[in-house]
Amino acid sequence: MDRWRRITAAQRTLPDEAVPVVLATQGTHGPVVHAVSAAGVARGIACGARVVDVQAIHPDLHVEQADIEGDQALLGRVALWARRWCPWTVAEHDGILMDVRGAAHLFGGEAQMLRDMHARFAMQGLRARLALGPTRGAAQMLARFGAQGVICGADDVAEVLAPLPVAALRLPHDTLRLLERLGLRTVGALADVPRVGLMRRFAGTVEAANPLLLLDRALGRSADPLDAPAEGARWLARVRMAEPVVDPVPWLEGLAEDLAAQLAQAEQGARLLRVTIYRVDGEWRSRDVATARASRDALHFVRLVTGKLDGIDPGFGFDLMTLEALRVEPLVLHQDRLDGTHDAGADVAALLDRLTAKLGPQRVTWDAWVQSHKPERVEARVPVLAGAVEGTVEVARERPLRLFDPAEEVVVLYAVPEGPPARFSWRRVTFLMVRFEGPERIAPEWWRDRSGTRLRDYYKVEVMDGRRFWLFREGIVGDARGGDPRWFVQGVFG
Amino acid sequence: MMSDSSYGQLVKLDNKHGVVDVPRPDVSQAVLKDALSARPFDAAVTAFVLACLPRSKAPVLWVQDRASRLENGRVYGPALKGMRLLRVEVSHARDVLWAMEEGAGCAGLAAVVGEVHGAPPVLDFTATKRLAMRAEASGIPVWLIRSGTVEGLSAARERWRIGSLASEVHPYNPAAPGAPMWEAELFRARGRSPGIWEVSHDAGKNGGENRLRFLPRSGDGPLEEDHGRAAHAAG
Predict the structure, then answer these.
(1) Which end of chain B has a smaller Cβ tally under 10 Å, C or N?
(2) How high is the pLDDT of residue B234?
(3) Does A440 touch chain B (CB under 8 A)?
(4) Which of B195, B175, B174 is closest to B183 using CA atoms?
(5) Facing residues of A461 across strands?
C-alpha cells in the first residue's frame, strides 16, 4: 500500500485520505481485496473479501490493481538493504525475517534497534510492523498479530503467544476451519491440548499445515534456521577525487587495473562493463561497453571505455567515478600452444570489442544464412557480440557479387518479347544489351510473402562495355496480379 | 613467375595462405593498395580484389561507408564461396578509416578491405600514409576500393584501376556471357613499372589451379620486353 501511494503520488493526485482505497487481485470468483488503506481498515474492510461485496457496503470505495511482482521485487531489495542491521536477512512473501542474534548491541540494545528500524523504514516511506522474538515463528506471529514493536524474550514466549489466534501460525484455510470446529481458537488453547492427540490427528498432513510442528518451531522446541540468500558479488572499482574534475581519462587506467586485479583474484572475466561518473550537482551519467569474450585485460578496458567517454557530459565536474563489471564469466588462465606465438583469435575478439564499442552493435556483424528463395532474404546479419555463426550457404546457381537491396527499377527503352530489354536505362545511363543468360524463375514464397506477390524471372545481362547486371522482371503478362511487368536491377556480377 | 608463349604470364595463387602480389608474386609484401573503378557500378573491381585476397580461415574485415553502399550495393555472401566476412557498415568515411586502421593492426585477420565512395576530405594523403604504414607493420594486406570521382594524392603502394571487359565465350551458349574478363591498369606503383593487362581468373573450380592470368594489353609480348625498367629491377 505504501509503495502504491508513493508511485501514484508521483504520477497523479491521490484520492482523499478519508476515501477508503483497496488494491485488488484476481481471485477465483472475481477480484478480491489484497491491501487496504488506513481509512479502509477503520471502516472494517478486511483483506481477502470480494471487491464487489465491499463496493456494495462502501459505495465510495476506490479500487486499484495490485502489483504483486513489484511488491516482491521491492521486498527482495529491502531485505538486502536491511543487512545494515544484521548479516542474515531473507524476504518472505509478505515480510522480511532478520536474524539479529548478536547484532543488537551494536545499536544500543534491542529496543533502540527497533526504534532505529522504524525510523529508517519511515524515511523510505514505508510503514513497518516490527516484532522481536526468540524464534523465527514467534517473531512473524508477533509482527502480524501482536502489538507494534513488541519484544519477547525466550522465557516468556509461551505466555506472549498464548492469546494470539491460531491464524497467526499461518495455517492453510482448511486446517484453520478444522481447528475452529475443535474449539481451538488461540495458540494457548492449542498448546494446552495433549501432544499425543494432536500428533495423531495431524499425522498425515504436510509440514506447512501441521499446527503442532509450527507451534514447536515458534516455541523454540525444534530448530528453525534462517536460510538467507547470498549477496551477489559485485565487481566494482571506484576512485574519489579530492576536487571535482572534468576529464575522466587520467583516472581510467587506475580504475581498470583495480577492476582487473579483482577479477583476476576471482578468476573471472568481464563481459559487460559500466563506467559511471557522479557529478557535483547530484546527477550521474553512465556508459555500458560489452566485450566479445570474457576479459580482464586492464589495457583493453581502457581502450574500450575511452571511446565511450566522448558522449559523457561531465557538467561542472565530478568527484566520484566507478568502473563496474555487470556481467562476468569464469575466465581461467590457459595456454593454447607451446610455440610462444600470439593467439590470433584473442586479437580478433579484442578488435570486435573495439569496433562494437565505438560504432554500435548493429554496425559490426557476421553473416548468417536464412533458408529462403529470395536473394535479398538469404543473408541475415548477427551482431558479432552475439557469437560466431557456423556453416556456409549453398546456392546452385551463379549469384552476383554485389546486391542492391531493395532492387532498383530500370526504365525499359526497347522491349523484346522474349528475354530482357534490348535497351534499358538505369540511374540515368542507357545500356545496350549484348548477351544474356536466363531466365531463372524464382516463385514467391507463399508461406511468407503477402498474397499478390509476383514471381520473378532473373536474367544475367551483359551490356556493351562488359558490365554484367542481374536484372529481373517482376511478374509476367496476364498473371492477373497487377499491370505490365516491371524490370529491376538486383545486383552486379564481377 | 611462369611465362608461356601464348598467354602472357600466369600468377599462381596459393590456396592456403600467403599474400599474392600481382603481377610479381615474389614480392609478397602486405601493403596498402588502392583499387579504383574504371566505370560506375562495376563490380569488376570487387571481384579483382576478392581474387587477390589470401584464402584462409581467418575472417576478412570489410568496411563500407554509406555512400558506397547506396552506390554499389553490398557484397553478397552467397557469391563469396566460403570466405568469412566481418562486415562493418558505417555512415562516414572517417569511421571507415578508423575501422581499417584498427583492423590493420590485428594479426588475426586475413585481410582488410575498405570501400569509400567519392573523395571525402578526410581521405587525404596523411590518412592513407598512416594506413599504409600500419599495413606494412602488421603484415596484413589492406585494400581500399574507391568509386566515383577519385582525386587527390594517395600514399598507397600500388594503385589499380579495374574495369570490365566483354566476357569470354560461353562454352555451351554463344548468346550468354561467359567467364569474366577484366582490364587492370596499374597506374602507380612503388618499385615496379605500371602497365595495363587483361586479367581473367580461374577460381580453381573442377580441380584446377586458383590463378589469375595476366595478358599485356598491347599484345606485343611479355611484360619484361615492354618495360625494360621492370626487368632491370628484377635483376
Answers:
(1) C
(2) 42
(3) no
(4) B195
(5) A436, A469
Residues with Cβ < 8 Å from A454, sequence gap 6 or more?
Answer: A444, A474, A475, A476, A479, A481, A482, A485
ipTM of the complex: 0.81
**Residue-level pLDDT at A6:** 66
Neighbours of A68 (CB within 10 A): 13
Residue B229 pLDDT: 47
What kind of fold does domain A2-66 have according to CATH? MutS, DNA mismatch repair protein, domain I (3.40.1170)
CATH code for the domain of B101: 3.40.50.300
pLDDT less than 50: residues of chain B: 1-7, 15-28, 221-222, 225-235
A-chain residues near B44 (CB < 8 A): 466-467, 494
What CA–CA distance (Å, rounded) separates A362 from A383? 6
The order of strands in the sheet holding A235-245 is: A235-245, A318-330, A268-279, A284-295
Q: Which residues of chain A have pLDDT under 70?
A: 1-2, 4-15, 232, 334-344
For A322, A466, B46, the CA distances from B160, given in Å and listed in that order, are 50, 18, 12
What pLDDT was estimated at residue B235? 37
| Residue-number span of the structural domain to which B6 is assigned | 2-234
- Which grid cell sits at A198? 494432536
Cell reading at A158:
509461551
Residue A462 pLDDT = 94
A382 in B contact zone (CB under 8 Å): no
Residue A289 burial by Cβ neighbours in a 10 Å radius (0-12, 13-18, 19+): buried
Going from N- to C-terminal start, the domains of chain A cover 2-66, 129-219, 235-335, 402-493
Q: Does A145 touch chain B (CB under 8 A)?
A: no
Which residues in chain A touch residue B103, judged by CB atoms under 8 angstroms apart? 351
Helix residue spans in A368-466 (DSSP H): 375-378
- Cα-based distances in Å from A187 to A85, A173, B75, B91, B124: 30, 16, 79, 75, 89
Number of domains in chain B: 1
Output the pLDDT for position B1: 42
**Contact, B163 vs B146, CB < 8 A?**
no
Predicted confidence at residue B18, as pLDDT, reads 36
A151-188 b/e (C-beta count within 10 Å ≥ 16 → b):
bbeeeebeebbeebebbbbbbeeebbebbeeeebeebe
Q: Return the pLDDT at B233.
A: 43
Cell triple for B122: 578526410
Window A:316-355, CB contacts with B under 8 Å:
342, 344-348, 350-352, 354-355
* Single pTM value for the model: 0.64
B183: nearest CA partner in chain A? A466
In CATH, which of 3.20.20.70, 3.40.50.720, 3.40.630.10, 3.30.1490.100 is domain A235-335? Answer: 3.30.1490.100
